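EI: anyone free to look at a 300-residue chain?
SC: sure, send it
EI:
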Amino acid sequence: MNTNQKKAYWLAALTILFWSTSASAFKIGLRHADHYQLLFIATATAVVFLFLVLLLQNRLPELLIKNRSDLKKSMALGFLNPFLYYSVLFVAYSLLPAQVAQPLNFVWPIALVVLSVPILKQPLKLKSIIALLISFIGVVIISTEGNVLNMNFASPLGVSLALLSSIVWALFWLFNVKGQRDEVIKLFYNFLFALVFVTITTFIFSSFRGINLKGIFAGIYIGLFEMGITFVLWLKALKLSERTDKLGNLIYLTPFCSLIFISIILKEKIFITTLIGLILIITGIFIQQKRRNEKQKQLI
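SC: here you go
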């Protein structure tokens, strides 16, 4: 293994470590601020961080948008993510235990497959249908919060919002891949426009007062280690890696690592149904991912 590949794995591991703490940070932040306030602080932090990254890299001239279509696209993508995505996700976390909300939000690769049918006109193969069914069973099991025999969902709204957040993320991913602009530049504008949306909604539905220091620190942490630093680290890891597919598979460690932090930091007793359901969801994703890799090999 060469030096660059080792660096790529270390950066990926660090990124996964940070992402694994996000669920715990969400719950802590929501104890001390409402979801509007928390999203405002996190988004503002991400905007400042990404601006500083571009400043240190002497890339500020690249921020000039040359046509209106890029401006409109950045505005639309910024509405999807981070504004709508995290608005929905934070409410879901306020209604559900972290160990339930986190895995349900992680079904976005499955949502991506379903949405690819109408948006990208990709046919749904039998293997994909099987993968969807396996992951769906996992979703149902997790949603029972340990009461799988009675099939009693403690918060149907919370479950629905957690799943909706995965759909929003999948939509963002589908629309974001179209375009040739640099990823950091695109992300900066997404967060910049999202900050406008978040500021307006916070002003109308909440306030900028009454947030204690714990809420502020949680928002800053989320803005850095969920939204900002992790993205830059992950991009760097992908550039250094010889096999991005193997690096991408490491992402599936995130929800399992997240459960460890949820248990230690939030003191949640992890349901056996959470583990079983999460394994089923990841199994479904792997089946679908394998089909996609086989299809790509056939095209080479």
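EI: The CA atoms of residues 105 and 163 lie 6 Å apart.
SC: 👍
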